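Forwarding the complex inputs:
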Amino acid sequence: DQQVKQNSPSLSVQEGRISILNCDYTNSMFDYFLWYKKYPAEGPTFLISISSIKDKNEDGRFTVFLNKSAKHLSLHIVPSQPGDSAVYFCAASNSGAGSYQLTFGKGTKLSVIP
Amino acid sequence: NAGVTQTPKFQVLKTGQSMTLQCAQDMNHNSMYWYRQDPGMGLRLIYYSASEGTTDKGEVPNGYNVSRLNKREFSLRLESAAPSQTSVYFCASTPGPQNTEAFFGQGTRLTVV
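Prediction (whole assembly, two chains):
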């Protein structure tokens, strides 16, 4: 039973355009969401997060949108750059349960074409 | 500032052999974690240590044991390796609960033949 789903295994975008990565979750107890970026042969690195009390969080070129009623979040990257090419993981936690367990999606591989 | 350091980076084991994966962090974080990543899968939590002296099972703990040696170090032991444990293992740390940025090591690629 996959509680965090990233239904697009891969995405290709032209440099300078917008990249939109999607994530759906099924557990209504999740109240904190994070995006991690991973390059080959490296560990994941934190990108951006959002609490369920917000519907948008922005950090430079990266914006995360949360739609609680649809149990859906998305990561927007504008403008996309070749260095953004990586695997992006969506993750969720339940702060009420102590938040020591993150549930990850399977990831979306983003390729930004110069 | 090294962050989270894992050793070794690569390891090949024969079925039934044992080994310990080492992890150390220098950020004075309270909480540490071990994950595994398999092809086409997200990261799955094996064990975690919320604070020094405590350890708890994650999603996939079978076949593993852990030790929180001190605040800095958290090791993962495979007592009798199986081919199903072929994976990339990541150690991570956070100041506290995981609704904060986690810092990951560079991973250990383990192959069990």
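Residues 68 and 74 of chain B are 4 Å apart (CA to CA).
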